[in-house]
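Table S4 entry, DUF378 domain-containing protein.
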Amino acid sequence: MDRLALILVIIGALNWGLIGLFQFDLVATLFGGQASLLSRIVYTLVGVAGAYSISLLFRERTVTKE
């Protein structure tokens, strides 16, 4: 679950970077505009992944030795 959330957060961050630098929304371009159902699903999943990632800040880290 952590990796999936991380992947979605990275997708969202890259999309926001494109919007900020070039005014280009890749998600909207790929899925038919900001108001399309598929775009809204992607935006929602990225938002949920971001909220889930907040829990990573408060988890106890364990050190593993190889």
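The chain is about 75% helix and 0% strand.
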